[in-house]
Alpha/beta hydrolase (Streptantibioticus rubrisoli), 557 residues
Amino acid sequence: MGPVRSRSPLSGMLARRGPGGVWIIVLAVLAVVALVLAALAYAATLPYAPYDPPSDSRDPRPDLRRYYQQTLSWTHCGRHGVSGGVRTPAAVSAMRCARLKVPLDYSAPAKGTLTLAVSRFGASGGRHRLGSLVFGFGGPGGSGVDQLAAHIGGLARLRQSYDLIGLDPRGWGRSHPLTCTDPRGAAPVAASADTAAPGDADPVDDAAVQLRTEAQQYADHARDCARLSGPMLPYVGTTNIARDLDVLRQALGDRKLNYFGTSYGSQLGAVYAHQFPHHTGRFVLDGIVDPTSDTKRTALARANEDERGIRDFLTDCLRRHGAECPFHGTVDTAEARLRRAYDALDGHPLAVRGAVLDQQTFSHALADSVFDQGEWHALRSALRALVIRRDALPLARLGGATGPGGAGVTRRVAAGDPPADNAYAASLAVRCRDSADRYTPQEAQAVLPSLVRAAPILGPLGVHELLACTGWVGGGDDSWRDVRAGGAPHILMVATATDPVTPHGGARRMAEATGVGVVLTYRGQGHGAYRLSECVRQRVDRFLRTGLMPADGSTCD
């Protein structure tokens, strides 16, 4: 998935000639030197790292003291502490909430202030407390406050040593949430996996028409984003979010930031270590974003992982679940039958009891289930229902087309919750701000065959990533990819051998790019190894609690 890249001479002195003129010059020079030294001494006391502002900034050294001198006032979160399905009394009762002020634009603080939502679960270990541990749960777009509440049950060991901190980054959750959808307007663009031609149409011509249509939809959506959230859009990239983390560190009273980032959170953590190497404490990054991969290479890498994941699922299906598996023979023959079931939906979606199973829903069902072994039983059963009984409902449900009762799912927005499209809007805003890539429909179509070759069913989904930033206001840049972190301590980087979202090779490239990475590999499949492997959890927890780092290249089963 996807950060902002960022980028006075003394006047001559005229001394009057005559007696004392030389001393006047000397005294003046000494006075200037004294002023310069005093300014340098004062700058050294400021609690933030040097920052190179954009070239259009009128303030080469913005005064950020008001932000770095703030303290957090923790209060009960109340009934709206978290939103959606994680609003549970057990989570909210132990959680405390606060608001953090940060500048909209770090290079020009006078432009305005943002107020960010922060949450805390206090350390349970008493005198053994090590400080705060800030979580970056991924996305971009998800609420860190919500995610911490949802996952607090599995973080008991870490809570013995740390105050656990959640943050809704700027533009997400309750931190000035972005929206790109007028409540009276249409829903966000939904990418389709169906790039084949209906009936007797030419597949190439049909794909070209579809991609042009989709590009126009994205461009229209970008205009809506600018209209509804325009003032925020230039300032939601990863480099600004990383600077917010440093303001948070100071407000928490920590000399160094301890951090656990997953997926996009790994990108955010790497950018922080680059910007603030001497404020970097114990860092764990899990599900590592590749800083060297552009949009096209990322789509191709994910397509290869998708194909690998499908074959792993089919291998397991054939070997261990013969009576339950709808396929027989070799993995190749099983995959061929899976493709035939997918191809049969081209232009002929199946409607059943309020749900529609088309190629898009079929693809999402696979993508959402094939990399989580806990979902394999449900996926096998759904495919068996489709292939053996022609019952499309179970697979449609897995693909998100219907809820348990057969009706389409629409998340209800309660009072105080962010807009329904906030996660989508924030994800799009960060990704488009963090990338200079802008593909035309023709360029996207040229990439499509390689995606299909890599993964015939799931590969075509990647082509839509190429078009997502069409018409985005303000453009983007790639400066976040410079993640050199000289002076930072070693960072533990955890990767899964087969990961459909952040392929394993990205971890090694991130380690090399930062210069301080130590890679631990979980020899399994799925995105985010900490939740999948007890071995990984033990090593990560031990590092965060004791500082004992696994050897580079270590593995877990």
Observations:
- Confidence is low (pLDDT under 50) at residues 1-58, 190-203, 403-411.
